[in-house]
Amino acid sequence: MNIINRNIDRGNAFDWGRTSEDYAKYRDIYPQEFYDKILDRGLCVDGQTVLDLGTGTGVLPRNLYRYGARWIGTDISWNQIEQAKRLSGDMDIEYYCMSAEQLDFPDESFDVITACQCFWYFDHERIMPVLYKMLKPGGRILVLYMAWLPFEDRIAGESENLVLKYNPDWSGKGETIHPILIDDCYNDKFDIVYTEEYPIDVEFNRESWNGRMKACRGIGASLSQEKIDKWEAEHMALLDVIAPEVFSVKHYGAIAELRKK
Hints:
This protein is α/β, with parallel strands linked by helices. The protein has eight helices and seven strands, in the order H-H-E-H-E-H-E-E-H-E-H-E-H-H-E. Helix 3 links the parallel strand 1 (49-53) and strand 2 (70-75).
């Protein structure tokens, strides 16, 4: 399903379903420290029911499943949901293909609602009241993010420049460490009770870093197959020059926790 947002990539269409296979293979990359930040908040654990918005291939539910929460994941892309179901195997996780703006769960269904790498895609004026109703008293919204740091890491920076060569309208460029932006409409119904940003290193080899970059919005979700193939060949040639076989890429993680008033 094509997504068009005038604030993203200058309004050019993108479709996560086009890159679902690469997403499934290469984007399950969060280190344990990323998950520990969630667990340290006492969230997504035994006794809680969690809704994961924009679940993609189910990375968050699958990796936190062993801590005992009951998980439901939703995503706008059917291809992503199919990959999530496949990768979840016999885990008891429910997945539904629906956008955040189409959510239709009973009131006070969830202890926690998570949104990882996707919060900025939503129409917050529409979904905020719905999220409020679906959360139990004192329930939490947990917004999560992780990004490479192109100005601090050569491999990330030169890889990002190559994305921009093929897709100059891509607006995912130039990340620096900063807090997650929470839309003002949440202020009436939620308190922001915790935020944190922290450096984090993520290990790759040449193939997995190429796959991670290819599965980003600026390449696999938006370009023609011909351009994707050309970008991939040039990126692998670049990595042969600048990257050892195994390496770490500097990232940062960010978390914002909102509590229902």
